[in-house]
Design brief:
heterodimer; A: 121 residues; mainly beta; 4-stranded antiparallel beta sheet; B: 106 residues; 6-stranded mixed beta sheet; 3-stranded antiparallel beta sheet
């Protein structure tokens, strides 16, 4: 059974850097075709994809946020970390990590519960 | 950048059929995935690669994709189907979500 869980601060100040950790179980991020992505959702708004890291350490970023994002993995710890610099109140959102399966062709088949991050001074 | 457009809302009578569209330039050439999101919950994948259902998703959910429009169809709608629905594609090495559709079961 695949599970993912996000962790990190619930409140950050403007201009600070946000660091979120996705801890997962039930799969290995060294298996060919597997990936872990980050998606966020501001209150009452649509889903927005942020970044994804593949089993081979290939990384993809949202073009509009690329300059602020870094995604890394620690295969031995079953964790994926997302950092976002220069946080702004508009970045207030629920942040999800999700599993990308090679069999579903770039769909996210399992999601974490999400973690709400508020940006405020 | 690639854009996916969905209607803001769709209403369906209990037991009837709801159709949710997802518009994009030549979307028929891409794999389209659909997610259901209920209030306060994480999204759930209900259709992948245009028309495939993950394990545990009822047969009432089906999908199609052609030309510039992909469609998620919910047959025999139930009260539990009331949720937001999002389409998603992979384009130019990025993942793109649609604008989302709120489905109301009357």
């Amino acid at each position: 059974q695949i599970t993912l869980k996000e962790s990190g601060p619930t409140l950050v100040k403007p201009t600070q850097t946000l660091t979120l950790t996705c801890t997962f179980s039930g799969f290995s991020l060294s298996t060919s075709g597997v990936g872990v992505g980050w998606i966020r959702q501001p209150p009452g708004k649509a889903l927005e994809w942020l970044a994804l890291i593949y089993w081979d350490d290939d990384k993809r970023y949202s073009p509009s946020l690329k300059s602020r994002l870094t995604i890394t993995k620690d295969t031995s710890k079953n964790q994926v970390v997302l950092t976002m610099t220069n946080m702004d109140p508009v970045d207030t959102a629920t942040y999800y990590c999700a599993h990308r399966s090679p069999t579903t062709h770039d769909a996210f088949d399992i999601w974490g519960q999400g973690t709400m991050v508020t940006v405020s001074s | 950048s690639y854009e996916l457009t969905q209607p803001l809302s769709v209403s369906v009578a209990l037991g009837q059929t709801a159709r949710i569209t997802c518009g994009g330039n030549n979307i028929g050439s891409k794999n389209v995935h659909w997610y259901q999101q209920k209030p306060g919950q994480a999204p759930v994948l209900v259709i992948y690669r245009d028309s495939n259902r993950p394990s545990g998703i009822p047969e009432r959910f089906s999908g199609s994709n052609s030309g510039n429009t992909a469609t998620l169809t919910i047959s025999r709608a139930q009260a539990g189907d009331e949720a937001d629905y999002y389409c998603q594609v992979w384009d130019s090495s990025t993942y793109v979500f649609g604008t989302g559709t709120k489905v109301t079961v009357l």
